[in-house]
Structure formats: C-alpha cells, structure tokens
Design the sequence.
C-alpha cells in the first residue's frame, strides 16, 4: 500500500509547562478529507502548526510520503507539499490577487506570466478568481479562494484549512465544502480543522477528535462526536440541544412588553455614499430576541450599529434607549483593550460620559462580581485581557454590556470562534437577559444559532430587511435574495 | 496591586541593565577611539554628580526641559499619537514667552511670570494643534507633520531673533535679556537651580494623577490602547480626545520652552534648544511612558549631557560620543520593550516595522 501523504506519529508538545499535545497520531491519506475536531484549546491548531513547520514538536515524528522529515519553517512545509490556509487570512489587502499569489515565490515577477499562472491554478482547481482584482475589494469568500490558490500554486498535495467556513455565509460554506470534496477526490488530501460537526460529517473520510491535547476515539455519528469533543460533563452542550432548550424556554409572547427599539425607514450610506441599509423598519419589544440572518456584507453590520446607537442613520427615524449594550463581532478590535487589566476594560463602558475621578477600587469590585456572575476565568481583575481565552473574553464583554443595562442589547456574532461550552454560556446569558425583560437584537452568521435563540427572524439581503418565517429554508432563501413567496410582511 | 509592583521592579531592572550596557558601550567606544577610558568616565561622572554645583546647576537644570518635553511625548504616545514635534513646540513656547515678556516690562513679577509661562504653554499647544488638525481633518500623519513643524519653528525663531524680537542694539541674533524680576526665582544661592524644578515635579505628578485616576485621562489611554474599541462604546469621541491629546502634549512642551527661557537662558536665540525635544522621545520611551518615570529618565539623560560637556572640557573627548550612547540607549529601549512583549510603546513603533 502507498504511504500516506502526511502522518504525524506520537507527537507531544509543550508550551512552557502547559502540555498542548500528548502522544497524538494522525494519518492523512491521498484522496481523502480528514476532519480534525475539537473544542478551542484542544490542540487542533498546535498540531497543524507542527505539520506546517511553524512549531517543532518536543517528541514524535512527522512523515511525508512515509519519509521522516523535520520542517523548520512554512517555506520547508510548502516545498514539501504541505500548505495551510489560516482562519485569519494572510493577504496583503492593497495588492492584487496575482501579486499576493506571487509573494514568496522566487525569481523575476512578470505580471502577465504570474496572472496566467494564477488563472491556470484556479481553473485546474475549479475556483473562480479574478487575478487582477485588488484583495481589499474582494468579499471574504473570494479572499479565501485567493488564499487557497496561493497554497495550490506552490504545488501542495496536503492542504490544511483552519476553520474555513467560519467566515462564510451558509451558501458559500456549502460551496467551499463541495470544492474540498472534489479537490480530495482528484487525489489530493485536505485537512479540515473545524468545530462544526455537520461540516465534518458531510464530507470527511476520516475524523480525528482532540480533547485536552489527546486523541479521543469517536463514534461516527453526531452524538458520539459531541460526546467525544466535550466529554462527560457537558453532554448536552451540543448543537442540537440548543434547539431543544429553545423549545423548552417559556413562551416569549407572554412576557413581551413595550416597544424598546423602534426604527422606521432607516437608510444608511457609507462614507463613499453607497447605500448599505435600505429603508429598514423594525420594532423590538422588551423580553424578546429578534434574530437577524444575512450573508456577509448585506448591510447587517451597519444596521446593527444603528440599532445600538453607534452609527447615525442617513435618513429615517430611530428611537432607541439612551444606553444600549453592544457586543461587536470582532472583540479584539472593537470591544477590548487587550493590554489593559480587566477592570479597565469594564470601566470602558460609560467611560465617555464619566467625569472627575475614576474610582478604580469600585471598578475592581465590580469586575470581580461580573467575573463570578458570568464565569469569567482569569487570575483576577488585574489580569490583562490578552491573557484570557476567547470564550472568557467574550463572557467578560457580554457581562460588561449586560451590567446595568435595563433596556436593550445588540449582539453581533457573539459565539464566533468560541467552543461549545463558551457558546452555551453566551446563549444562556442571552436567554437570561431576555427573561429579565431586555429587548435583544441577535445576529449570527450561523443560521441554526439564530433559529435556536430568536423569537422572530429577519433576513437581510443587499441592504433590505425581510421578515422571514422561522424555518431554515425560508431564511436561507430570503438572505440570498430569493424565495419571495415565503416572505410575508 | 502585586502585579503592578512586579511590573515596576521589572522596569527598574530593565533600566539598570540598559544603563550597564550603555556604560559598557561608552567604555568600548572610548577605548576604540583611543581615549583613556578611566579619566574620561571619571570626568563624566564628576561633571554630572561630582559637586553640589554640578548636581544642581548642570544636571538638574537640564532635567527641567527634558522632563517637561518628555511628559509631552509620553502623553501623546499614550494616546497613540507619535508626536515627534516636542522640539518645535518647545521653541514656539519659548518664542511666545519672549514676545509676551517684552510687553510686561514694569509689571510685578507675580503678574508677569504666570502670564509668560501660560503664554508659552498655550503657544506650544497651538503649535501642536496644527498637527492635530492636519491629522484629524486631512489625514496627514503626525510623524511627518510634527517633524516639518519643527523646522518651521526653528526658522521662525531664527527670523524672530533677527527681526521683531532682536535685542535693542541689533548686533546679536538674540532677544533682549529678561529683567531679573521677571526671571524664575533661584532656589539656592550660588547655583542656577531655579523654581522651574518645582514646577516640573508638580506637573509630572499632576499628569500622572490625571492619566491614572481621572475619567478624561482614562479616555485618552483607552483611545491610545484601542481607538476602535473606544469608538465602539458609542460615547467616547475619538477625534476630540485625540485633538485634546495633541494640544496637551504641545502645552507641556511649550511650558518647557517658557520655563527654560525664564529659568536659564533669559533670552531667545537660534540654538535655544540643543535638541531637548528629540532627547525627550528617548526620555519618554525609557520611562515606558510613565509620567513619574519621566522624572527619573530625564535625570539620567540630563546627567549624561552634563557629564558629556565635562568630559569634553576635562578629558578632551568629543561630547558626540555620549550622543552615540544615548541613541543606542533608545534603540535598546525599543528592542527591550519588544522583547518583553509589553506594548507600552505604540504598536506603530515596533510591530509594523517588525513582523
């Protein structure tokens, strides 16, 4: 039998005293998709960083085509036929697709030749990509295709994709997964790092599950995998149980009250005067969660900021409470002072209207209370935000925005990049807030997540807000601009 | 609290290590360039700390403009503004102080002095505000605009001391000497130690209190730490905060110019500042942008410069050797900061150039 393209044998790796991987083995065969599953911090990324030459293991062997190899840099890995597309893209926005692909290659750069090569590679792989488009002008999906072409142009046989569907809308994600399957069928190997079970089950030949840095054996069905990933303690935290919990929660209509957020005919133009939101009208009552579904760039970003009072509408009437909690999608960029202690991050709320002295002792106490109320795990209120895991950072932000918010909360993709446990905690906090009578607007790029939490759903397509029925198909069609028949006003 | 003590200890250790490296480097430079190492170093230490007069009239007197300009840089950098223009703001402050003092002849000093100092500070603030408007309205990077404004300030000073502000005899390119009752009082007879030292320490403490414990100081730090997150609170007006930081930074540097004028030089001339505003960047960085730390690092640089003069005078070693050491210190500070992966230095100074 032919040797596998890539095999990792008995890999152990430590970061300082922390053990990230212990005795992990994994074999990637030609012609297959190998899904690598696990919660945040389970060791998926560490393992793949070893395979891509970014880290060298403390112990264990890496074999390429059966030959034991030492990779000391990504350049080594690429030369040996291993390519990786990171979750956060590594493209130069100001450059064209061709220039980005050519970066890192050697020799003379001839634009026409390079562009032809990009076109060839893209055509052979079956990916649509304009070689002369500037990366900053491309939507996320196309940027991802550019990353893939970049890897493929180096003749890689093993392609590692880190959470590739995290940034994509459902339709794009499905398309990407189909492509991954075809690419593998053509004799290549793809490693799919993900925490979406459905993706893994849909296309993977092999599945490896990591938990706490070890391989855990897993059944082939969804329940078995959930169990393997999160362990005994939280068997109920899986994707499906969310829907179950939602059904168990008290009927929202009984508690719904006054209109808290009300906007009518709102138009938002961006600084280039392009219309991002077209005549949006929406009312959110106390004690309900209004869900919003949309593909990337449909105007939800702007609409959410108008609802949260963070962006001024170009036209229309906006009635919102004076204080609206807001959890932005990119918490590192928009919600946290990463190098500041936690209590300063808590103080950031309301810092705009405060006067005089900052009573840091009070903020420390408040932070400690919030940390226990929202189960934020950190060494203390003095820890810097950077030292927290993504889930704990998000719980901190959510806690901050919910604290002393009586009326309304706007959340944007709150579980992005979080593991099951943290996601469940975030969902529970949102349900509790609804129960406490807040009006909540909830956007997620994960349709199932919206369905499991929301009482009503709007889809957004190309700047237009469309009320949708609470079914996957109807929403999916509405956010892609079709299925007008399912839409009722 | 424990973490903060630990941080402070770590900072002091780092500074000590850097100092040792600087001393070693200086010794090596001296050896390589063929000077006797020991006498030169002795002259340097003597020039800075060798006598009561050296301490007060050479070292501490130099600390004053360095510390005030260093505070200006620290405040700007804390807000994420790379104000390289403390030199120009200091010069404009001194020029405005000189101009206004000419109109106050005959006034009692308790009226004249505050007016002179406030005018100098305000003028420095206005000069920095020009860079602020350029950045916030037109998107001109302050690194570029403040350097250009430095040149402008230098030439304006040159013109002033040959034109409107020239002394009455019109012989020397400098302003008339400030009457003694408008000068900052001398604190110790027989030295040049003036009341500007007290002002400097008070201002440093005030800036520290404000940054660490006031709401507006926190806003400034928040904007500097992450302007996106500050804006996303929906309440912090980022441009306004930045503009205030520009202005405050200029006020501090301008005050430095006015204090130097009323405390030491008593006249405006072309080479009024031997690069205080540039050394101030090193002062601020070495202090990790901490206002009280600035007092310490300003003392260090003041001692180095006082010592360098003495070394040139007594041992015949060109004072530029010390400038080489100062420059190396700055590079070491930035590198050490990166090393410890603490981001007290604005990311733009290290990250973008680095990784």
Sequence:
């Amino acid at each position: 039998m032919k040797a596998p393209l890539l095999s990792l044998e008995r890999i152990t790796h430590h970061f300082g005293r922390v053990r990230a991987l212990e005795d992990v083995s994994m074999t990637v065969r030609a012609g297959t998709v190998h899904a690598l599953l696990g919660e945040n911090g389970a060791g998926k990324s560490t393992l793949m960083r070893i395979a891509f030459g970014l880290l060298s293991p403390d112990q264990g062997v890496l074999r390429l085509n059966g030959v034991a190899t030492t990779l000391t840099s990504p350049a080594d890995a690429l030369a040996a036929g291993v390519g990786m597309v990171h979750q956060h893209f590594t493209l130069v926005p100001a450059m064209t697709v061709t220039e980005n692909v050519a970066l890192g290659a050697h020799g003379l750069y001839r634009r026409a030749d390079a562009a032809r090569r990009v076109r060839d590679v893209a055509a052979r792989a079956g990916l649509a990509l304009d070689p002369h488009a500037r990366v900053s002008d491309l939507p996320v999906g196309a940027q991802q295709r550019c990353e893939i072409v970049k890897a493929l142009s180096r003749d890689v046989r093993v392609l590692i994709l880190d959470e590739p569907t995290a940034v994509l809308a459902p339709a794009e994600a499905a398309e990407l997964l189909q492509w991954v399957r075809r690419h593998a069928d053509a004799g290549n190997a793809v490693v799919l790092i993900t925490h979406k079970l459905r993706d893994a089950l849909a296309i993977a030949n092999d599945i490896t599950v990591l938990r706490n840095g070890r391989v855990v054996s897993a059944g082939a069905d969804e329940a078995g995998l959930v169990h393997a990933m999160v362990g005994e303690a939280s068997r109920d935290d899986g994707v499906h149980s969310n829907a179950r919990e939602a059904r168990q929660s008290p009927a929202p209509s009984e508690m719904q009250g006054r209109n808290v957020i009300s906007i009518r005919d709102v138009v938002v133009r961006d600084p280039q005067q392009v219309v991002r939101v077209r005549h949006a009208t929406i009312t959110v009552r106390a004690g309900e969660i209004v869900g919003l579904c949309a593909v990337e760039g449909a105007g939800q970003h702007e609409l959410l900021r108008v609802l949260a009072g963070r962006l001024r509408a170009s036209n229309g009437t906006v009635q919102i409470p004076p204080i609206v909690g807001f959890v932005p999608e990119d918490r590192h960029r928009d919600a946290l002072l990463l190098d500041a202690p936690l209590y300063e991050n808590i103080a950031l709320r309301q810092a705009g209207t405060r006067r005089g002295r900052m009573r840091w002792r009070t903020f420390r106490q408040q932070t400690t209370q919030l940390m226990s109320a929202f189960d934020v795990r950190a060494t203390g209120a003095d820890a810097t935000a950077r030292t927290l895991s993504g889930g704990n950072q998000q719980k901190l932000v959510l806690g901050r925005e919910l604290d002393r918010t009586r009326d309304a909360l706007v959340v944007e993709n709150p579980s992005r990049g979080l593991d099951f446990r943290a996601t469940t905690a975030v969902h529970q906090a949102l349900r509790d807030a609804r129960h406490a009578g807040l009006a909540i607007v909830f956007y997620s790029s994960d349709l199932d997540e919206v369905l499991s939490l929301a009482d009503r759903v709007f889809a957004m397509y190309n700047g237009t807000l469309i009320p949708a029925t609470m079914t996957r198909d109807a929403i999916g069609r509405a956010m892609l601009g079709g299925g007008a028949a399912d839409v009722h006003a | 609290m424990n973490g903060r003590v630990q941080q402070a200890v770590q900072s002091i250790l780092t500074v000590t290590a850097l100092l040792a490296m600087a001393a070693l480097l200086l010794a090596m430079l001296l050896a390589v360039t063929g000077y006797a190492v020991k006498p030169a170093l002795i002259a340097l230490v003597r020039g800075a700390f060798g006598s009561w007069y050296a301490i007060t009239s050479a070292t501490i007197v130099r600390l004053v403009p360095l510390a005030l300009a260093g505070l200006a840089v620290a405040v700007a950098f804390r807000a994420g503004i790379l104000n390289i223009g403390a030199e120009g703001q200091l010069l404009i402050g001194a020029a405005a102080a000189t101009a206004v003092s000419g109109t106050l002849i005959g006034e009692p000093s308790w009226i004249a002095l505050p007016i002179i100092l406030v005018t100098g500070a305000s003028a420095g603030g206005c000069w920095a505000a020009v860079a602020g408007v350029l950045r916030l309205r037109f998107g001109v990077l302050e690194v570029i605009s403040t350097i250009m404004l430095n040149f402008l300030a230098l030439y304006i000073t040159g013109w002033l001391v040959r034109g409107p502000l020239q002394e009455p005899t019109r012989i020397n390119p400098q302003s008339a000497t400030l009457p003694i009752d408008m000068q900052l009082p001398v604190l110790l007879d027989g030295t040049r130690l003036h009341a500007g030292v007290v002002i400097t320490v008070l201002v440093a403490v005030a800036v520290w209190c404000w940054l660490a414990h006031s709401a507006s100081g926190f806003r400034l730090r928040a904007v500097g730490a992450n302007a996106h997150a500050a804006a996303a609170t929906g309440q912090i007006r980022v441009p306004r905060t930045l503009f205030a930081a520009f202005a405050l930074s200029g006020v501090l540097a301008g005050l430095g110019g006015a204090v130097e004028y009323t405390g030491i030089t008593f006249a405006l001339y072309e080479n009024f500042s031997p690069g205080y505003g540039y050394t101030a960047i090193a002062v601020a960085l070495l202090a990790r942008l901490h206002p009280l730390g600035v007092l310490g690092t300003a003392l260090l640089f003041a001692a180095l410069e006082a010592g360098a003069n003495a070394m040139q005078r007594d041992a015949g070693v060109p004072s530029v050797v010390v400038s080489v050491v100062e420059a190396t210190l700055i590079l070491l500070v930035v590198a050490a900061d990166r090393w410890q992966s603490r981001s007290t230095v604005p990311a733009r100074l290290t990250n973008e150039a680095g990784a």
